[in-house]
Amino acid sequence: MAVAIFDRLSYWYPAGEAPALADVRVELGGGLTLVMGDSGGGKSTFLRVLNALVPRFHGGRIAGSACVAGLPVPGTPTAELARRVGFVFQDPELQSVYTTVERDVAFGLENLGLARIEMVDRVDAALEAVGLRQLRTRTNATLSGGERQRAALAGALALRPLLLVLDEPTSQLDPDGARSIVDHCLELARTETAVVLAEHRLERLAPAASRILAVENARVHEKQPVLLANGIARRHPATGGKVVWRLQDVAAGPGRENVLEGVDLAGCAGQALALTGPNGGGKTTLLRVIAGLLRPRAGSVERRPGRVAYLPQNPAALLHLASVRAEVELTLRRSGSEEAAGPILARLGLTEVAGRYPRDLSTGERQRAALAAVLAGRPALALLDEPTRGTDVPARTALAGLVADLKESGAAVVIATHDERLIAAAADRVVRVGEGSAREEAAV
Questions:
Q1: pLDDT at 33
Q2: In what order do the strands lie in the sheet with 61-68?
Q3: Do 137 and 268 belong together in one domain?
Q4: Model pTM greater than 0.90?
Q5: Distance CA 337, CA 321 (A)
Q6: Which of 65, 222, 272, 417 is the most exposed place for a label (fewest CB within 10 A)?
Q7: Helices (H), 3-57
């Protein structure tokens, strides 16, 4: 039995001349449906039809029809579809309502008017499924990006939906967390819950999917399983030059307790250092200490003079001007650079959207826009927190090239990432952050 039916569905965003979805004819049944495609091709728009956010929230025009869980879209209110469709967005920061994990996971259940004893049981089960039971009383502001992603998934699981829709659910997760989420999705797909999942990292999911759909240039079509490439090729590490930043006996944490203790670490000009380790282990804390955004509780931080470029996990926090080009040009002016914005926009595949408002872009496009905005103008130190979040293979390849250019210009680069392909392509050193420490691993 089909859980969703699209019949010649087309959709235009309010300001869009071309359709974001064009003549979609597809039925979604049980099992795991994997949705793939390049950033900006329409994957998120396709998913958002499934809970009526398109068009009820985003507006615009719709033609043709869609029916989800036996209910017509857009004739059914989003609140009604939410009882049947669990949805996890690309930006988990946008799904937080309450300040603590436990209350956030229970939010949807409260709206359904469930009895307290049943809510407690469902919240417990959902937190256990995503590995967050020990963090149930934590405030959301103290969670890492990966922990926020798992908390958002727990909120959807607690609803026990007929259809679970996940948009890039593993983009910020460490390998263990990603495996756990994928295994749980596969387990759900073997029951009465249909799972529709959009991802760029397909290695584990593609072989297990019941079917694969490709969303390309606004059109949706069946995709046959393909042999997946290994990604970006490994490179030879650089030795680096003068020390650009140094931490000595540093202790720090975002809340009342330290997540880092006694850290001694340094980075050199012309060298890229990758920070790996479990979600919540302290990678973001370490980046913020290096950047001067978080004062350590003990120890010292030294930085050579020069501009520091910092990309946070949530790129929307950086983007506030009217266009992508304006964001890049602002950085160039402030850095005193005579470079034009065009080259870095082209390098990151942003030329066609350079005149668009950044927050109207897809998550992958918005991530690339933030990278262009912070890396323009040749910074002396570049600090990148999960820079491949929501990006496709061409964008990751372009980023590896930009890192190489930064090193060539004498910049020091620090990247917090779970992306093994990016580490292989760009990192000269690897530091594992977790359990309070930062330990250098063997050369890449």
A1: 92
A2: 21-28, 4-12, 61-68, 71-73
A3: no
A4: no
A5: 19
A6: 222
A7: 43-49, 53-56
Beta bridge partners of 213: 35, 222
Q: Tell whether 88 and 172 lie within a shared domain.
A: yes
Domain holding 270, by residue range, is 243-440
- Residue 200, pLDDT > 60, answer yes
User: Cα angle vertex 298, ends 297, 304, to 5°?
Assistant: 100
Please report, as a single letter, which amino acid is at residue 26: V
**pLDDT above 60 for 338:** yes
**Is the predicted pLDDT of residue 231 greater than 70, yes or no?**
no
Query: Can you tell me the mean pLDDT for 419-438?
Result: 92
DSSP codes joined into one string, 382-405: EEEESTTTT--HHHHHHHHHHHHH
Residue 231 forms part of a structural domain: no
Residue 230 covered by a domain:
no
Residue pointed to by tokens 């872009």? 361
Residue with tokens 């009526």: 52
Residue-level pLDDT at 369: 95
Residue (of 151, 232, 172) closest to 401 by Cα position: 232
Joined together, the tokens standing for residue 366 give 């918005």
The whole-angstrom separation of Cα 162 and Cα 1 is 12
Reported as a single tens digit per residue, the pLDDT across 160-191 is: 999 999 988 877 777 777 777 788 888 888 88
